[in-house]
Amino acid sequence: MDNEYYVLVDTGTGTGTIRLDVPVTASIKDMEDNNLAELPYTNGESYYVFRGYPDPTPPSVNSIDLVWLSPTSASSVDFTITFSEDVTGVSTSAPFNDFQLVTTGVSGAAITAITPVSASVYTVSVNTGSGNGTIRLDMPVTASIQDLSSNALSGLPFTTGEVYSIDKSGGPLPSSPTFGDVPMNHPYWSDIEILYANGLTAGCSTESLLFCPEQTMNRAQSAVFMVRGNFGNSYSPPPAPWMTFGDDFSPGPWAQPWAQGMFDAGLTAGCSSSPRLFCPWEEMPRFQAAVFGLRMKYGISYPPPSGTGTVFADVNGSEWYAGWVEKAYAEGMLPACGSSGGKPLFCPNDLVSRGLGAYMIVRAKNLSMP
Fold it and tell me: Quick one: pLDDT band at residue 17, thresholds 50, 70, 90?
């Protein structure tokens, strides 16, 4: 028959609906050369296309995690919310009714933006307001989020997400960045500003003021951080001769007096006792930073507790540094680097950046803006 046609359609990928329309631009005519009337035609039946059987399992919240380090004095922080599957209906514009903040101590905290990372992961940005306290992001029972099969979100209210500790003690942070490579949204911005304001760093470049926050810290740089952190910005390293360590300091002669000062203060025994070496150009792993940080806080004779092997998924307690890293983590000096099997990871051999070094020193010395 000339008035019936079959249209074969490739359904593509994904789950959803397909409808066949006839647009106003259709060039179809009858045998009398009359154009097709009453276009566009949009009232045809629709196919619902799904891959496999409809999903009977409702979505849930897997986790609400901190993006930034905590404690923090930052004016804005981010949370990452991860759902068990792809979802729709997340309120990404004010008033953000799918989420609510639970605070103690702070006032004026507010959600400012919600940004999709993927269909199952979203970033929630929060203004931390004023005052000191805590901020937690919850999902109330009224959240209207669904999965792609229209199953409503289950397990609500969700109230067990990670919590930011907000500490804005001391003077105010600057209204603009001091260093050209540390913008205000950098995770270590507030710590670097506090370190600079207390005279404990001049950055990595003074011609164009830079801090190099992502640069890996070597033992020579750590000597400056640790000694100044212990004795203040008025400390001067000992004068020559510097005879303790037999390293080649020619790549950076400035480091030798600082290594000597660190040894004289009892903050290091070096990296080798026979021969006595400091290893100034060796990059610092996180387990060494834990030792330096705790000695900075408690003094050079501090004895760490024995390691339990129960805190981290990647530290079993047999390592000589197990007690050091467990204590540094408990003190908030060094954050976890991830999680595995329900336990945090410490990543003891990961290298320490200058930004993380600033974070550690601020907490070891309980520094704030002067």
Answer: confident
Confidence of residue 325 (pLDDT cuts 50, 70, 90): very high
With a cut of 70, say whether residue 348 has pLDDT above it.
Answer: yes
Strand order in the sheet with 121-127: 61-66, 76-83, 121-127, 110-116
Is the CA virtual torsion 240, 243, 244, 249 positive or negative?
positive
Q: What is the mean pLDDT of residues 65-89?
A: 86
Pairing of strands 16-19, 46-49: antiparallel
User: Residue type at 199?
Assistant: G
* Burial category of 130 from C-beta neighbours within 10 Å (exposed 0-12, middle 13-18, buried 19 and up): middle
How would residue 53 be classed by pLDDT, with cut points 50, 70 and 90? Answer: low
- Report whether 126 contacts 78 (CB < 8 A): yes
pLDDT of residue 268: 83
As beta bridge partners, residue 124 has: 79, 114
Q: Say how many residues make up the chain.
A: 370
179-186 contact pairs (CB < 8 A, 24+) = 179/203, 179/209, 179/210, 179/211, 179/213, 180/208, 180/209, 180/210, 181/210, 181/211, 181/212, 181/213, 182/211, 182/213, 182/355, 184/74, 184/75, 185/76, 186/213, 186/355
DSSP-derived secondary structure letter, 187:
T
